[in-house]
Design a protein that fits this description.
The complex is a heterodimer of chains A (373) and B (88).
Chain A lengths: L1 E2 L1 H15 L4 E5 L3 E2 L8 E4 L3 H6 L3 H14 L3 E5 L9 H9 L4 E6 L6 H8 L5 E5 L5 H8 L4 H14 L4 E6 L8 H10 L4 E4 L7 E2 L3 H4 L3 H22 L4 E4 L14 H4 L14 E4 L5 E2 L11 H4 L1 H13 L5 H5 L10 H8 L7 H18 L1
Parallel strand pairs in A: 2-5, 2-12, 3-4, 4-10, 5-6, 6-7, 7-8, 8-9, 9-11
Antiparallel strand pairs in A: 12-13
Helix pairs in contact in A: 3-4, 10-16
Chain B lengths: L1 E2 L3 E6 L2 E6 L3 H4 L3 E4 L1 H10 L5 H11 L4 H17 L3 E2 L1
Antiparallel strand pairs in B: 1-5, 2-3, 3-4
Helix pairs in contact in B: 3-4
Classes of the chains: A alpha/beta (373), B alpha+beta (88).
Chain lengths: 373, 88
């Protein structure tokens, strides 16, 4: 029977996590991007020659893809940086599409010309996931440094949809675009689509951006979440369907968090509640295998020792990552989005509570208590 | 009869899957899951094969009677035909 991406993803992911078999992976084809988003966790300039020179070659990516497929990889996310900056993107994509993967492309959309849409339509991926950083040229200037990116992204989304290519629209909320929510919501509603909202912005993994200086405070984020929930509930009354899916951060869609695995994880000493380290991994632009996009310690080197051995190596290393005991006992944990990767980025330790996440969880719980009184 | 070119049979996390390759995704989006015996039959059909040979394969590999094997094989072929996966 034919199944949708999400149905099959959950079913297979559960099985793979139990068996600790590699099933989902992200290839970060480049760290370079034509936008200069203030909240990016891996940000190098499009013209950064040093970063470009260190990127894996076409042949290296193909070799890794073949080895990853033989290790079990089915769900492959192509991400960056901006993947369409790679001059060999078409070659890589066409090769990957013939290796037996289900592919999701993450992109900012600005480089997706009508020609690229036509090319993709002849061999469409499972999803093109476009991030829309604001609802105007002004916001784009503030958030990404490129005002014209707005027009280009809108036109890419509409061209993709017109060709029937499965397309997902997301946004990442920061100071510079928090006022645009209603317009973004209207935009996706008019197109009968849902809006994926990345609410958690991680401290940077590498590059020169300033995520923490631009993300919302816990209080602002709570207000944003309240507003978007109300807006969605109002719309659902009229249309009968919800149009927001909350995505905790830019990598959590690849390695979905909690819900599916929470019960399975109770009492476990394995720190990851998502798929990372047990059935999902991430290959960086310079060829390191890491648990997920924001967690680059531990790492392994698939180019030196082969993908299968690197996968076994990273799995073993992830087993040694300690669980945060304070978080495990915390009264606010039900609405906390902590994970070893976020704790590490926030505090430098896998097992220390992160004040930003603690405050957010506490405010959410307190709001819920008040609103149910 | 034979399975069309452009599909890959894979076993992922204990589940048999058929994934369309390259441009085949246009006519066959999503993926197909198969039982273990379905995977045996699919593998057989990657080469030119008759329904009699497929029934013989099932009889050789599974403890079933001929009537059941025949029904199952013909049903499997019908499903693949419905999805236009067979080169006649």
């Amino acid at each position: 029977m034919a199944k949708t991406w999400s149905e099959l993803y959950s079913q297979l992911a559960m099985g793979a996590k139990e068996k600790k078999e590699f099933i989902a992976g992200s290839f970060e084809l480049t760290s370079r991007c034509n936008l200069r988003c203030k909240m990016c966790y891996v940000s190098h300039s499009a013209y950064d020659k040093h970063a470009k020179d260190k990127e894996l070659t076409t042949a290296q990516w193909i070799r890794l893809a073949e080895e990853a497929r033989d290790t079990g990889l089915l769900f492959l996310t192509l991400t960056g940086g901006e993947v369409f900056l790679r001059e060999d993107f078409k070659t890589l994509y066409e090769k990957f599409m013939n290796l037996g993967f289900l592919i999701n492309i993450y992109t900012n959309g600005t480089l997706i010309t009508p020609d690229i849409v036509n090319w993709l339509a002849a061999m469409p991926p499972s999803i093109v996931s476009v991030t829309l950083y604001g609802a105007s040229r002004e916001t784009y200037q503030k958030v990404t440094g490129l005002a014209g990116g707005y027009d280009k992204t809108i036109s890419a989304i509409d061209n993709l949809l017109a060709k029937g290519i499965p397309t997902e629209i997301k946004t990442t909320v920061i100071q510079g675009n928090k006022k645009d929510f209603d317009q973004l919501y209207d935009f996706v509603q008019q197109r009968n689509k849902a809006l994926g909202v990345v609410n958690y912005v991680s401290p940077s993994r590498e590059g020169s951006s300033d995520p923490c200086g631009n993300r919302l405070s816990p209080d602002e984020l709570l207000q944003y979440e309240i507003h978007m929930t109300k807006r969605d509930q109002e719309a659902a009354k009229k249309t009968g369907r919800k149009s927001i899916s909350k995505i905790e951060d830019a990598v959590s869609e690849v390695n979905p968090i909690k819900n599916n695995f929470e019960n399975h994880m109770k009492g476990s000493n394995f720190a990851f509640e998502c798929m990372s380290g047990s059935c999902a991994g991430w290959v960086t632009w310079d060829g390191r295998l890491i648990p997920c996009g924001i967690l680059d310690k531990p790492e392994s080197n698939p180019l030196e020792i082969g993908f299968r051995r690197a996968w076994e190596d990273i799995k073993q290393k992830c087993l040694l990552i300690p669980v945060c005991k304070v978080c495990r006992e915390c009264q606010y944990k039900s609405l906390c989005e902590k994970c070893p990767a976020r704790l590490y980025r926030e505090t430098g330790h896998y097992d220390q509570p992160a004040p930003y996440l603690c405050e957010l969880a506490q405010k959410r719980i307190e709001y819920n208590k008040k609103s149910t009184l | 009869m034979k399975i069309k070119e452009g599909f890959m049979l894979r076993e992922v996390a204990g589940q048999w899957l058929v994934v369309p390759l390259g441009e085949r995704v246009v006519e066959f989006s999503g993926i197909m899951t198969l039982s273990e015996s379905g995977a045996v039959l699919w593998r057989k059909m990657e080469q030119d094969v008759s329904s009699e040979e497929m029934i013989a394969t099932i009889l050789a590999e599974y403890n079933v009677d001929e009537e059941t094997a025949k029904t199952d094989v013909l049903e499997f072929i019908d499903k693949l035909r419905e999805k236009s996966l067979i080169e006649e």
